[in-house]
Amino acid sequence: MSETTRSDRKTQSSASSGTKVASSKPGLTSGLTIDRVFTTEGVHPYDEVTWESRDVVQTNWKTGETVFEQKGTEFPDFWSVNASTIVTTKYFRGAVGTDAREWSLKQLINRVVSKYRQSGEENGYFSTPADAETFEAELTWMLLHQFFSFNSPVWFNVGTQAPQQVSACFILSVDDSMDSILNWYKEEGFIFKGGSGAGLNLSRIRSSKELLSSGGTASGPVSFMRGADASAGTIKSGGATRRAAKMVVLDVDHPDIEEFIETKAREEDKIRALRDAGFDMDLGGKDIASVQYQNANNSVRVTDEFMKAVEDGTEFGLKARMDGRVIETVDARTLFGKIAQAAWECADPGLQYDDTINDWHTNPETGRITGSNPCSEYMSLDNSSCNLASLNLLKFLRDDDTFDAPLFAKAVELIITAMDISICFADFPTEKITQTTRDYRQLGIGYANLGALLMATGHGYDSEGGRAVAAAITSLMTGVAYRRSAELAGVVGPYNGYARNATAHKRVMRKHQAANDDLRTLSAFDADIQKLATDEWARVIKIGEESGYRNAQASLLAPTGTIGFMMDCDTTGIEPDFSLVKFKKLVGGGSMQIVNQTIPRALKKLGYTGETSEAIVEYIAENGHVVDAPGLKPEHYEVFDCAMGQRAIKPMGHVRMMAATQPFLSGAISKTVNLPESATVEDIAQVYSEGWKLGLKALAVYRDNCKVGQPLSDGKKKDEAKTDQAPAEQPVKIIERPVRKRLPKSRASRTTSFSVGGAEGYMTSGAHEDGELGEVFLKLGKQGSTLAGVMDAFSIAISVALQYGVPLQTYVEKFTNMKFEPAGLTDDPDVRMSQSIMDYVFRRLALDYLSFDERSELGIYTASERARQVETGSYLPPEPETDDASEADSLKTEPVAKSAETVEAPRVEAPAAKVETAKAAAPKSAHTTAELMESISGMSFDAPLCFTCGTKMRPSGSCYVCEGCGSTSGCS
């Protein structure tokens, strides 16, 4: 069946929502009627696609070691190599190399979906067996075609002999007793062992400034954090070589709050000192375990009272835990400054806005929301859990570039039904979590690919139009989820805690409805979505008034790291696109560099066709950005802004997008606001303050290079002299002092004139007889001016240090990518754009005085080398051919094989724009999109390396995810 025909029928059937018929049970109906929307009766979803056999081999590129191999796996031909690799390595169950091992996507989907159908039938969700069969077929079709995915624990556990754990997010609790504290350690350990993450609030534990009943002084929560941190660092989460995912929260009025704020910042000072002393303090380094508090994200829970005191510059009281009396007063603005200072130094703590969180709480009669999961998107009662699922938004974009809102609504109602069914059969790590989850049935539906959807439709991520689209989609998603929840309450009953909290739950529903009514649409694109959302919220209120609700929570925005790759999403969660160029693996081996597939579609939407589009795409392929792209209007630049690159989205752009969607979510948003290394403490304070004013529930920041344990690259180590035998005795330690190597009186030098962002200057560099750089002098500003004096002093300092043996590479690493004005275009063809004069100067020095290999490690190339890379896939000139070069070897140099057996079939194609996506062989030095962007732009990107395959990871919500193998830095 064609996509167009199926889409037409989908839209026609989208108006119905699943009818119900009478039942003998008082107040309840007999089950849901499930409509066929995606499937055709009598045709199995598997029979509609073409399947192919693939050999999945995964290697660590640094060591060359094969870390995984499974041959003969079966996937649809439109699934990418990345998606099939991640599913095979992460989700197939059974011992590798045995007949018990799963080998086909059909087996995986059948294992999961059949369990959902069985449980749905056993618990009375369906009106007839035919409805159960339709439910199974529809769910299978959507998973097969990558329209959505459940969270990872579902794929790990459902349908296996293991406990049927379906939740990825947990919130624990701890009281002021040793039994409770030791139980906290135990419960966290079991959750980490299962591969999930947990968070909790420590504010019930009395402070170190309070007395025990015995008369002694309490240890305080920070002291007990050490034990929990050590436990988390010992347990390999899910059996993998990655740290556990955990969140620790402390209320801002806790007397130990200053100690809590400074814990990780002080440890970061220790890390720097140990690193400088020669210890291995990189993430995963053998000596990093000697420092504390590295296994948790820390957040301060702030109140409106505190934030208003910060604005007014007044004092704020810290309260005893036992009786609530104020035992100390502090200056609120000073305390807030310490939070921002610590976050500037080490990215912790983040903020959680307590009053906003609890103002949207549907169960306040049961208890306040005090904690969150590790990524801060799940916020609910203590000792609870949440299972997640995320939709692929780009799948709902029609050929005419409109969003299929009715189809999206049908998908949401089916997915929410499945998610609620899973609670009926799920297992949980503790009895308390089991009880709370069964009583309140918290769900977390969300989405991925928002950034790609906005770009494809010509909306800038940081624009009013982009925010309106995101808000409308989020409102529709949550509205449909709660409408279906109300319908389910009429079929199988409301959640057990609903009667106690009915008034509060209905109040929150009206708050969501009011936010939707206040949403200002800017075009027909988002107006159509919002109109349907308005209808859905009206139905939520009406049906909920009659039946109540099946679920205390319905929606949130998760990182969607691994499952995002499983769905072949270009962007994860609420994130913008990472970059305009992508690193793509090919079926049968090899890789290529491609321009983001949504760019041609976006250009067509903006009115660019023919040669103009082709020229823009070629420019992006070579430069990685759109600045000065031939024929592209500057007012359209914002559509192509990304998380990384020449036009990286500003920090407040991320905050404003979060604020646009937050009123339409039951939970919160997993996202870290990244700031440049040059950001100040005041910049971070402003982001935290604006997050509160704009109504966010939580906010975390990360300033580039603020942490030692975030390796930018592993680099090539210099060859070291090795001895076969240890010395018989230790010699007396001799302290060697550096010797200055002065330049001869007469030496070779070169003078370079330059212009950066319109500011002109001169650079004179002198070299030793062996060609090694020995001095640099910069001429900027008028003689006698402050600028000229500062540059003279800087030049002398650099020159003396070079003569004392400081390698030029060290200065290039430190000063390239430094951002300040003047910045922009230069008159140097090898360095077309510069972020500052320092950035330009040291790039030019690297090009003049470093070898090709040394520059390659730093990602710095000449214009001719970059052009050669685009044409041939290599920065180096081609080697002369030899007679004994085999035909097979020569074929390996072809950029891309054109046979259908080698190049994967595309997914649903965009409308023909007659623009070929620029492709080239990917640089051998790149193994992920992050590394590819570094090689193109010459800008380093702050992210850890994957423990499994050694590639550079990229942000996903509050965590990092590996594009090569799907591993994450902590979140499931």
TrEMBL record:
Biological processes per GO annotation: DNA biosynthetic process
Record domain Ribonucleotide reductase large subunit C-terminal: where: 167-702
Ranges of Low complexity composition bias in the record: 13-25, 908-921
Record-linked Pfam families: Ribonuc_red_2_N (PF08471), Ribonuc_red_lgC (PF02867), TSCPD (PF12637)
Molecular function (Gene Ontology), one example: cobalamin binding
Biased composition, class Basic and acidic residues, residue ranges: 1-11
Cofactor(s) the protein requires to work: adenosylcob(III)alamin
EC number: 1.17.4.1
Enzyme class per UniProt: oxidoreductase
Protein role: Catalyzes the reduction of ribonucleotides to deoxyribonucleotides. May function to provide a pool of deoxyribonucleotide precursors for DNA repair during oxygen limitation and/or for immediate growth after restoration of oxygen.
UniProt-recorded name of the protein: Vitamin B12-dependent ribonucleotide reductase
Gene source species: Microlunatus endophyticus
Name of the coding gene: nrdA
